[in-house]
Each structure stands twice: as structure tokens, then as C-alpha cells.
Amino acid sequence: MRRAQGPSRRVERPRVREHQVRILRPQDIPACAAIIASESLWQRYGTSGRSARELIRGAFRRHDCLYVARANGQVVGFIWFLLRGAFAHSGYIRLIAVAASARGQGVGTALMEVAEKRIFQSGPNVFLLVSTFNRPAQQFYRRRGYRPVGRVPDYVASGLTELIYRKTEGSLRR
Ligand SMILES: CC(C)(COP(=O)(O)OP(=O)(O)OC[C@H]1O[C@@H](n2cnc3c(N)ncnc32)[C@H](O)[C@@H]1OP(=O)(O)O)[C@@H](O)C(=O)NCCC(=O)NCCS
């Protein structure tokens, strides 16, 4: 559901504005996996804490780009991306997740900024997939300049459709 607007809602949330973003370390992986496992989005895709841990460990071993946001000594979000993960040319944001208790306070934006900075240094496009039913995330991406450029039915899971979102600074051959 859409986050309610207004100052009263903001003060109710735990304050994580002092978060820091840094490269993921192996000891961060269980906390990242726990964030995924607790999110209904990935439960719908059948992702468990164990499978999430394996997924992130694999990404870490492959030297994919992984960053965490930390606040008050805890991991409150993370992002996983590849500089050439889309069509072997372009940046691909594979996954972003912020702990439910830390949302709406700029953590997701800070993680996206780190990913986009690195990706745009190496090419003019960023792609990502978002589920058709995940309207809050679609809005989050749209606000950050992403636009839907296609749809892929039955890709991650049968019966579910992924939207391809792109943020661009231009074509590959300018
Ligand atoms: C999508 C997601 C990563 C966004 O993370 P987030 O930390 O909530 O994002 P931000 O706080 O930076 O921005 C969210 C909104 O809060 C607002 N916001 C930013 N700072 C704020 C603050 N200090 N107080 C209140 N609101 C604030 C932003 O304006 C933004 O609004 P918008 O989406 O309408 O643009 C997070 O909601 C999430 O993990 N969702 C579940 C998993 C998911 O859907 N992942 C994407 C899969 S494709």
C-alpha cells in the first residue's frame, strides 16, 4: 500500500537517516537474506532465508557489485547490481531491498545512487525488472527517472510478469 504522506507519519518511523552505504562484507549476508525472506514480494516467488543466503553468497563469490546500507550498527538494506548485466552491455540492478522498518527514509534512494553512479561511469543505461504487482517499487523507480520499456511474462515464475524498466543517458553508440 502507498505510504501515507505528511509529517506525522514520518516521526513514527525509526530514524535511520544516519545510514551509511558501504561494500557488502560476508558477515552482512545473513542480515540481507533475512530482509529478503521477510518480504512478501519474494515469498510470492518462493524465496526462503536459506535460498536468499545462497543467492547472495554466489553473487559475492562472483564479485558482483553488492552494497549495504547500515544504521545503528545494523544492515537496513542492500543492493546488488552488475555493470554489464543487461544484454552484455549495460548496467542491471538485480535486486534492491530495504528492511520494512527502515523504508521511506531515503535508504533505497541512497543505494540506488551508489549503483547508478557506478553504472553510468561505465555506460549510458541501467535496466531492472520489477513485478507488475509491485506498484510501490514501480513508483519508486519512476520517480528516479526509470521508464517501462517492455514486459516479460512467465520469466521468474510461471503466472507472474516482469516489467523491464530503463533509465538512460543515451544510446550505446552516440
Ligand atoms: C522499493 C524500496 C527499495 C524503496 O526503499 P526505501 O528506502 O523505502 O526508499 P526511499 O526512502 O529512498 O524512498 C521511498 C519514498 O520515501 C520518500 N522519502 C525519502 N526520504 C524520506 C524521509 N526522510 N521521510 C519520509 N519519506 C522519505 C521518498 O520521497 C520516496 O517516495 P517515492 O517512492 O514516492 O519517490 C523498498 O520499499 C523495498 O525494499 N521494497 C520491498 C522490496 C522491493 O519491492 N524491491 C524492489 C524489487 S524490484
Molecular structure report:
The protein has helices spanning 7-12, 29-37, 40-43, 49-61, 107-122, 135-143; strands at 20-23, 65-71, 74-86, 90-98, 125-131, 147-153, 161-168. It has a domain at 19-123: Gcn5-related N-acetyltransferase (GNAT) (Aminopeptidase, 3-Layer(aba) Sandwich), CATH 3.40.630. It is built from 6 helices and 7 strands. The chain is globular, with a radius of gyration of 16 Å. It has a 7-stranded mixed β-sheet, with helices on both faces. Residues 1-8 have low confidence and may be disordered. Coenzyme A binds next to β4, α5 and α6.
Task: Name the descriptors.
174 residues, alpha+beta, Aminopeptidase, seven-stranded mixed β-sheet, globular, disordered N terminus, binds coenzyme A
